[in-house]
Amino acid sequence: MDITLFIDLMQDYGYVAMFLFNWVMLLGIPLPGETAAILSGVVTETGSFYAPLAFLCAYAGLLSSNLFTYFIGRVLAVRILERFEQSRLQNNVLRFRQAFDRYGGYAISFSFFLPGFRMVMPYVTGANRYPLPRYILYAGSASFVWSLIYFQLGRAFPAIYEEVLSELQRYLVIASITVLLGGIGVYMVRQRCLSR
User: By the 8 A CB rule, do 50 and 86 touch?
Assistant: First the structure.
């Protein structure tokens, strides 16, 4: 993907472009989240941007998009869960909600570091009516750390950030698949134990 257009837009529109790119990155459109965050760091090294302000704009974009999708989940996705509760999946939905009440904070925090999970988690959290102050606590702190890591990678490696990002994404995709398969495995073992 040729990202010179995005760098040019950041150079032309500055901090507003950083905010907007990091806001839409949760959707993966027009570029993946990691790329938007790392580009904010790159342009502070190659342009005339004040790094702390650039970071705050990138972080604010990420956090506000997470809150937006949390509210979408709270308003729209909750109806889907309510339909599942009235179907044969009622027990599964109930167990999921109990587990989410117990481990939701960890799941929210951990999801930021796994591609795919980061995009889905705000919807799931909102649909489960997870308390907003707790969501802000976990999502805010995890997104701060996540943004800082990618922002600093962009600043540390402005000339080779694409290679660094490519290598990192490969490992993160493997980690995401491992977590997903591990979760499915645990679920299957528990189902087998419960059926005995």
Answer: no
